[in-house]
Amino acid sequence: MFDNSQNTVPKILIVDDTPKNLQVLGNLLQNNEYEVEFATNGKAALNWIEEDNFDLILLDIMMPEMDGYEVCEKLKSNNNTKNIPIIFLTAKIDTESIVKGFKLGAADYVTKPFNKEELLARISTQLTLIQSKKELMQKNQMVSDSIAYAEKIQQALLPTKEFIDCVLPDSFIFFKPRDIVSGDFYWIKKIKNILYFAAADCTGHGIPGAFMSMLGISTLNDIIGTSRLDMPSEILNKLRKKIKLLLNQTGKEYEQKDGMDIALCMLDTESKCLYYAGAFNPLYLIRNNEFIEYKANRQPIAIHEIETDFTNHEIQLKKDDIIYIFSDGFPDQTGGENNKKFKTKYFKEYLLSIHNQPIKKQQQLIEDKFVVWKGNNEQVDDIIIIGVKIK
């Protein structure tokens, strides 16, 4: 097919079993600076198209052995030729014939005898459309390639599976971006016997959310460094301050309010003491079949109308305790028989129903539940759920 980067002259194949028609059409198109090739029957046309690239096909319908309809059907069923525009050029003017041609995939239909200026205009329109489509596909491919590269960058910033298995062997992380890249992220940092881990939900999803997630990860790394042992509440206070500074959030009405919700934990692996603080995102603890919720502060990591220091919760963990931190992606997913949100209430009940299962199996159960609940609906948001069992 025609590509401006390789050739400035569109190539057109004329298929007609009447030599006089070939001559008239060939002269008309060549005089208008088109490159032209000819085929006198359907089989010859298909052979030509296998050997060469054409930007457009002028196709007669009434031909012996293989008519134009059959030629069109074969071309449209082939991935290599389905995008070549076909203009039927024929004396058949009944509605049924015209409709049949369009159903088979023809781009246009010109009746004989044809008006030269009309035919040239229709050819020009189809060539412009196909070139625009090619340019759009190229741009879409460039965008897709860029997003795929952004995914690699984002994945590089997330903890590796090997690291997670080392520092949190009895855990799972269910991470399911809505798009290729995610506004949700998970973060883990180990300093001696102290283990930090977080589940965060940034404003937006896709590329805007991914930018925010990268900003959140890098800022958390800067705050904690390699030796500083701040409480989660102190870290969230500092994180909010830095995010506001980086995004130039001063409280003016026209400013963006981008930021993140987050659940941040600090676990002393020796004493089994857990410290938690949250911005909108709570922490769930299941102990002896009892469900306990530690609530987050109702304020984001961003500019907010009323800002207070984040609250620190201290939890002395026991053997077989299970803790969950997460974003709102799963509870907000629409689905089920009534096509409604899963909701937080049922999310709690589901976690309680599966918490006695092995921790790694819980991840698969959660994923299966999500797939069944979502059904044919689109995923509405990014999802992150972290589960940790205490040994």
Task: Describe the protein.
- The chain is of the alpha+beta class and 391 residues long.
- It folds into two domains: 11-139, Response regulator (Rossmann fold), CATH 3.40.50.2300; 158-389, PPM-type phosphatase domain (Phosphatase 2c, domain 1, 4-Layer Sandwich), CATH 3.60.40.10.
- It has ten helices and 17 strands.
- Strands 2-1-3-4-5 form a five-stranded parallel beta sheet, with helices on both faces. A five-stranded antiparallel beta sheet has the order 6-17-14-11-12, with helices on one face.
- Strand 9 (260-268) and strand 10 form a beta hairpin.
- Residues 1-6 have low confidence and may be disordered.
Layout of helices and strands:
Layout: E1 11-15, H1 19-31, E2 35-39, H2 42-51, E3 56-59, H3 68-76, E4 86-90, H4 95-103, E5 108-111, H5 116-157, H6 161-167, E6 171-176, E7 184-191, E8 194-202, H7 206-224, H8 232-246, E9 260-268, E10 273-279, E11 283-287, E12 290-294, E13 313-316, E14 322-326, E15 334-335, E16 340-341, H9 344-354, H10 359-374, E17 383-389
Parallel strand pairs: 1-2, 1-3, 3-4, 4-5
Antiparallel strand pairs: 6-17, 7-8, 8-9, 9-10, 10-13, 11-12, 11-14, 14-17, 15-16
Helix pairs in contact: 2-3, 5-7, 7-8
Structure in a nutshell:
This protein is α+β, with helices and mostly antiparallel strands and 391 residues long. The protein has 10 helices and 17 strands. Helix 4 (95-103) links the parallel strand 4 (86-90) and strand 5 (108-111).
